């Protein structure tokens, strides 16, 4: 399973002792993980859940990202996830 690393343009101080400067992502999803995306109320919610699943980080951390990083992460992951997600998710 491949891993990709994205360097945040704006690091996140997630906890007093944890500064997030990079996020690492898996590039494969299981059907169980895809099913977790179905229950989301919005496209943003599903994308936050997807980024959380692939990075192994809590959704609260993804929520704390700068919006520019959030959109760049989507662009960064798209080429690797097109086969898994089709055209509808990211």
Keywords summarizing the entry:
50% helix; 24% strand; globular; 90 residues; two-stranded antiparallel ribbon
Short description:
Helices cover 50% and strands 24% of the residues. It has 90 residues and is of the alpha+beta class. Helix 1 (31-38) packs antiparallel against helix 2.
Description:
- The chain has one domain.
- The radius of gyration is 13 Å and the shape is globular.
- Helix 1 packs antiparallel against helix 2.
- The longest helix is centred in the last third of the chain and has 19 residues.
- Strands 1-2 form a two-stranded antiparallel ribbon.
- The two termini are 20 Å apart.
- The protein has 90 residues and is of the alpha+beta class.
- It is built from four helices and two strands.
- InterPro entries: Phage_tail_E/E.
- Pfam families: Phage_TAC_7.
- This is Phage tail assembly protein.
Secondary-structure blueprint:
Layout: E1 3-15, E2 18-26, H1 31-38, H2 43-55, H3 59-63, H4 67-85
Antiparallel strand pairs: 1-2
Helix pairs in contact: 1-2
Protein name: Phage tail assembly protein
Pfam families: Phage_TAC_7
Organism: Elstera litoralis
DSSP helical segment count? 4
Strand content: 15-25%
Q: Kindly state the mean pLDDT as a whole number?
A: 89
Number of strands: 2
Question: What percentage of residues falls in helices of 4 or more residues?
Answer: 40-55%
Secondary structural class: alpha+beta
The biggest beta sheet is recorded as: 2 strands, antiparallel
Query: What is the assembly state of the chains in this entry?
Result: single chain
* Order of helical and strand elements: EEHHHH
Give unreliable regions as ranges. none
Strand order of the largest sheet: 1-2
Report how far apart the termini are: 20 Å
Total domain units: 1
Radius of gyration: 13 Å
